[in-house]
Amino acid sequence: MERTPVAIVGAGPAGLMLSHLLSRAGVDSVAIDLRTRAEIEATHRAGILEHVSVRLLVDEGVSDRVLREGDEHEGIALRFGGRSHRLDFRELAGSSVWLYPQTEVFVDLADARRRDGGDVRFGVRDVQVDVTGERPLLRFTDADGTPVHLTADLLVGADGSRSVCRHLVPEADRRRYTREYPFAWFGILCQAPRSHDELVYTRSERGFALISSRTETLQRMYFQCDPATDPHAWSDDRIWAELQARVAGEDSFTLREGPITERAVLPFRSFVQEPLHHGRLALAGDAGHTVPPTGAKGLNLALQDVRVLAEVVPDVLRRDDPSLLAHYSQRALQRVWRAQHFSYWMTSMLHNAPDGSPFDDRRALGELTGLTRSAAGSCYLAEGYTGWPS
Ligand code: PHB
């Protein structure tokens, strides 16, 4: 039998950042995860951090490695009609983003929790969550085989897009908002030099493509595909031909090719569960909402959720009043819906719906042309991409 003020299910970036921020506010927590630390480190996710996310990592004392090893990007290229159009974030929004993969954010957070003596348990088994009693109860088997009963004053579900915790909220007490998309992303990692010094978001008649990067010698690229695609049925040559065809244009832009070391088809969905709390349970990050990866908002939203949650939790505990979690839900959802719109908008503007008509295609090109030629339109994208103030 153990007790903790806050039990956190999920020790990815959202769970670990929450545990870190709570400890700075003098609140203890226990975070658990079914995955081992090595398994989480091997998961590839998006790589763009908004300015406010970078500030949170640095100012809250997690690590300043992002400033030393991350790459600051002051713009992106929008590519359509076979030409690139640069959006200058510094000029348009007075801001920038950092290319710093989610895995590195996780490593920094896990190291910081270890450094500060945080209670984080990776590789646990047989997790059972019970929120029907007076206090939330977690039962699990520790990595070393010890059975644990953990009672908490608050339970936080930070257990990702396949969250178990979100289903603990009775149907009558929640609403779910979902949008499915008729496409997915085929993502690759390849050993090659950079093809461009900033990210390239491309709309072509063959569909969307995104050229991103990891290091000088390792590149990340994606292209829109059918959700039923088997990534292993595609040869390297076929993947390169498809990517090259999507970015081709009158300026002869070509991708620098190399051996493909990883490939996966990534699901695509917009989802929100409201509210983000119920009784002594709060949901944070992908557990409460998921966005398609086009706007690179998922990790950034998760970090802002837990920033707000960590402000509210000390009050909830002091007054023993879980209804105060409503303040968290209301504040977090404002940003969530703004980001939902942004991600949906970027997605629909840059992808081809399989049942789309030639009219839809021309209309999207008209939208992109209007956007890149309008200072107001370009500013709107730059502000959304670099992130709104927290
Ligand atoms: C990535 O580098 O993995 C990445 C970047 C931007 C996105 C999505 C993914 O919008």
From TrEMBL:
Pfam families assigned: FAD_binding_3
Ubl conjugation as UniProt keyword: no
Keywords: FAD, Flavoprotein
GO MF, one annotated term: FAD binding
Residues of the FAD-binding domain: 3-342
NCBIfam families: PRK08243.1
Listed name of the protein: 4-hydroxybenzoate 3-monooxygenase
Lineage: Bacteria, Bacillati, Actinomycetota, Actinomycetes, Micrococcales
